[in-house]
Amino acid sequence: MNASASPSTHYSRLARLLHWGTLLLMIAAYATAELRGLAPDRSARIAVMQWHMALGLLIWLLVLPRIGARLVQPVPAIVPAPGRFVHLAARAAHLLLYLFLIVQPLLGLLTAQAGDRAVTIPLLGFTLPNVVGLDSGLHEWTEDLHVALGKAFYVVIGLHAVAALAHHLYFRDNTLRRMLG
Question: Under 8 Å CB-to-CB from 115, ≥6 apart: which residues?
């Protein structure tokens, strides 16, 4: 068997770039949402939230190639192989992470537009077309859901990070090294 046909021990460079890039964008999106209260005035808070929304949309755009890469590129094996429960838990956690990456930005967009906030992309200067009209009930509902899911999302992200460290430090397998390259 030649080297090109052997299974990889690491995720592809593209998968790693998308994974770590998404993490950096999520940190920035979280920071803009949490720190907007420090903005000196209303117009500055609006600008910070425009950045938050733009980052959320960029995260959403990155999830599509992430899913594509995951479907077409083989996932490197964990060595030594985990038990069935660990394997199922990892699959469930990844499914949740992908669902969050798809749903959260869309909820944010609906929240903004139902609240009559234009979603303008900073630096590019264009405004997304409205998919919903002004609707205070929808705005309130989607905002509450966006905030609640955001908190749940951070718990799942934290568990994902703790699991990666546990695999590295306790189970001593290659789970973390596969994503570090």
Answer: 134, 136, 139, 143
Among the listed residues 120, 88, 108, the one whose alpha carbon sits nearest the alpha carbon of residue 153: 108
* pLDDT at residue 2 in the model: 39
- Give me the pLDDT at residue 181, please: 80
Residues in the chain where the model's pLDDT stays below 50 = 1-5
3-state secondary structure of 121: strand
Hey, what amino acid is at 14? L
- Beta carbons of 103 and 63 less than 8 angstroms apart: no
Q: What is the DSSP string of 60-104?
A: HHHHHHHHHHHHHSPPPPPSSPPPHHHHHHHHHHHHHHHHHHHHH
DSSP for residue 181: -
